[in-house]
Amino acid sequence: MADVAGLGGLGERRDGAVRVDHGRISWVGARADAPLAGATVIDGDGAWLTPGLIDCHTHIVHAGNRSDEFEARLHGASYADIAHAGGGIMATVRATRAASVAQLLASSAPRVLRLLAEGVTTLEVKSGYGLTLASERTMLLAARALGRHLPVDIVTTFLGAHALPAEFSGRADAYIDHLIKVMLPALAAEGLVDAVDAFCETIGFTAAQTARLFTAARALKLPVKLHAEQLSDQGGAVLVARYQGLSADHLEHLTMDGVAALAQAGTVAVLLPGAWYFLREQLAPPIAALRAAGVPMALATDCNPGTSPLTSLLLAMNMACTLWRLTPAEALRGCTMQAARALGRQADIGSIEVGKRADFALWRIERPADLCYAMGANPCTGVVNAGVLRPPVVSWRD
Ligand code: NIG
Ligand code: FE
Questions:
Q1: Pocket test for ligand 1, best of 56, 59, 210, 270 (most atoms within 8 A of CB)
Q2: What is the mean pLDDT of residues 245-255?
Q3: Which terminus of the chain has fewer Cβ atoms in its 10 Å neighbourhood, N or C?
Q4: CA 184/CA 186 separation, integer angstroms
Q5: Residue 14, exposed/middle/buried by CB under 10 A (0-12, 13-18, 19+)?
Q6: pLDDT of residue 398 exceeding 50
Q7: Share in percent of the chain as helix, strand, coil (round to 5)
Q8: DSSP class of residue 167?
């Protein structure tokens, strides 16, 4: 049928074939041996087949845009200066609180469509620009609605601990109590929360506050993940590893203690080169140490209006290779099997193996490294969601 990349490790198979029954992979092997009885044959025509791409860290549901802050930073303001002046995350909170589910759906869909055109089949979406029960719910409902309107599987993360809302100014501990007692239980009971995240940072929440939230999440049987060591070292990676977290994300300021903790817990390091590039950060995550310690490394866009207005996972792969020296195989695994693991979905998606969901992307390329190599190109020629083939470009009507 096609050339297949992504079997287990990055096993590659020329002239391979995959059989799908009821949306799941039932057989993988050489084309010559393919069990064809009762099958509709789709000829890949020499294209490469990979697992569907997984964007495992986004803030893609939000209202408004922060190109004014982009401009201010070009005139010398820093991300932290802007946050202290009431801009940054709070600027997006103001815009998002004013939006309905339908408005958030309409503003997010074009961004999601750009990801889908590049072979994305699973997308994580965080809340965190509402910071009230009603508004966080609106964001999570919009995220779930994306999955009903578009051919993509949505995984939601509750990020109520993203910033301190004005109503709780000077009372961060009281806000964490409110998240624990009111918001998280209510949203979890509504089935809107697949995991819990926090922004553990000098301009976010302390490690102690994050730990209290994580304890509450685990009591509700929800997995945790963390924005850790993005702008400073707060011991976030060690903390999230202690809670058997799915992932620690960003990690530019990660120390060797943190690397060891992630390795020991099997927590995935989610690397976000778009934010690093956009903020012109200087300190890179310790890739060589993560690699040496055997920490699984995933890659994501971090699509958000403040630090990473990025809607191309292929460009994130190129950035990870060019800026941080990931190999193309690591980058592709980072957007497939390791991203699946960062979402706790590794048994279901992320590689082309019997039993997994038949989510694939087809590419007109010579070899898998082409996905990382070409900047701004989109060689995706088809996408398969649970066994259903579609063209990469999907239309959207309000
Ligand atoms: O992943 N660091 C915190 N959250 C986002 C930024 C959000 C924003 O600036 O709106 C991030 O970089
Ligand atoms: Fe983020």
A1: 59
A2: 98
A3: C
A4: 5
A5: exposed
A6: yes
A7: 40, 20, 40
A8: G
Residue nearest to atom 8 of ligand 1 (CA): 306
Which ligand 1 atom lies nearest to the CA of residue 88?
A: 9
| Tokens coding 51 | 């697992």
Q: What pairs with residue 298 in β-bridges? A: 270
* Sheet architecture: strand order including 53-55: 53-55, 120-126, 153-161, 195-198
Question: Best substitution site from 199, 203, 276, 277 to test ligand 1's pocket, by max atoms within 8 Å of Cβ?
Answer: 199
Average pLDDT in the chain? 95
Yes or no: say if 321 and 375 are a contact pair by the CB < 8 Å rule: no
Distance between start and end Cα atoms, the chain: 37
Closest Cα to residue 357, out of 115, 121, 58? 121
| pTM assigned to the model | 0.97
pLDDT band at 1 (very low <50, low <70, confident <90, very high): very low
DSSP of 374-396:
SSS---EEEEEETTEEE-S----
Ligand 1: residues whose CB is within 6 Å?
59, 88-89, 92, 199, 227, 230, 275, 302, 304-307
Predicted confidence (pLDDT) per residue in 111-124, tens digit? 999 999 999 999 99
Report how far residue 56's alpha carbon sits from residue 298's, in angstroms, rounded to the nearest whole number: 8
Q: Which domains does the chain have, with CATH numbers?
A: 2-51+351-390 (2.30.40.10), 53-342 (3.20.20.140)
CA distance 16 to 201: 47
